[in-house]
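Dear Dr. H.,

I hope your travels went smoothly. While you were away I took the liberty of generating a structure for the chain from your last submission, since the lab meeting agenda had it listed for discussion. I wanted you to have the full record in hand beforehand rather than looking at slides cold. The sequence, exactly as received, is reproduced here:
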Amino acid sequence: MVTLTGIDPEAVPVGIQGFTLTVTGTGFTAGSTVLLNGNSLPTTYVSATTLLAAILATDLQLPRILGIAVKGEGRELSDSLGLAVRSLPATFAAGDVWLPPLPALAVIGSDGTVLATPEGEAIGMER
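The corresponding predicted structure, in token form, is as follows:
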């Protein structure tokens, strides 16, 4: 039985180049495969508790949570963990604390235009 206990890193900024994800758990074998949203990734077996997986830049273009799981040789699946792809502000100053933005709500017209913002401002509407 394969179990997934951790991933490193747990979060990355949107738009970065591909990177190697370290996956930790138990029960890994040379035939274990790391899955990203259900799709197999190029996986390197390190030990019964560590796998490395190649994450491509194409998977990191939008802010979202990617599901990471491990498939064992016998097709058993681990639970999944989330890899956060986060938007970052353009600049940071010393001592800044970055929190992910809250989702904005807006009224969208049938043609896709924004009709009103979260602040209640009317946009593109006749008065």
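Two observations you may find useful: The CA atoms of residues 49 and 67 lie 19 Å apart. The longest strand covers residues 19-26.

With kind regards,
E. W.
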